[in-house]
Design brief:
By secondary structure, the protein is α+β, with helices and mostly antiparallel strands. 16% of the residues lie in helices and 38% in strands. Strands 1-2-3-4-5-6-8-7 form an 8-stranded mixed β-sheet.
Length: 144
């Protein structure tokens, strides 16, 4: 059976992949799959066009409910760090207050909490998300 995803970087338990035919440019968006399979467990994105993170880039990640609790987000952050090495200085991770799992993931990855901010109302896309408009900003130096 032919795989439908192209592996960008491989780890022991997971891989960061893109759909076949996806352009390899400066868009760092990936599915997270179980190693050497097409089973998608989540996704991770590095976005340096997002709000005030132009110099470094904001990281977003999510793991499908069925696969949570396996540290796949932390493992994906480690792989993303390798992809960004030599291209960026640091990674920024914004975590909404109340998102305990993402908060713990950022800390366990080694990112440092640098400040707490409030998202301007005009950027709130889902007012019924259950999260407050407050979020934590974490930074991670890539060269570490």
């Amino acid at each position: 059976m032919e795989k439908k995803y192209k592996v960008v970087i491989s780890g022991e338990e997971i891989d960061l992949v893109r759909p076949d035919g996806f352009e390899d440019d400066e868009d760092f968006w990936f599915y997270i799959t179980l190693h050497d399979t097409d089973i998608v467990v989540g996704e991770i994105i590095y976005d340096d066009k997002y709000r005030d993170a132009e110099k470094y880039g904001n990281i977003g990640y999510s793991i499908n409910d069925k696969y949570q609790g396996n540290a796949y987000a932390k493992k994906a952050l480690k792989l993303l760090k390798q992809v960004l090495a030599g291209k960026k200085e640091k990674m920024i991770i914004n975590v909404f207050e109340g998102n305990i799992a993402s908060y713990k993931t950022a800390i366990n990855f080694g990112a440092k909490l640098v400040r707490k901010k409030t998202l301007p109302e005009k950027y709130v896309l889902d007012k019924n998300s259950g999260y407050s408009n407050s979020y934590f900003v974490f930074e991670y130096e890539i060269h570490k």
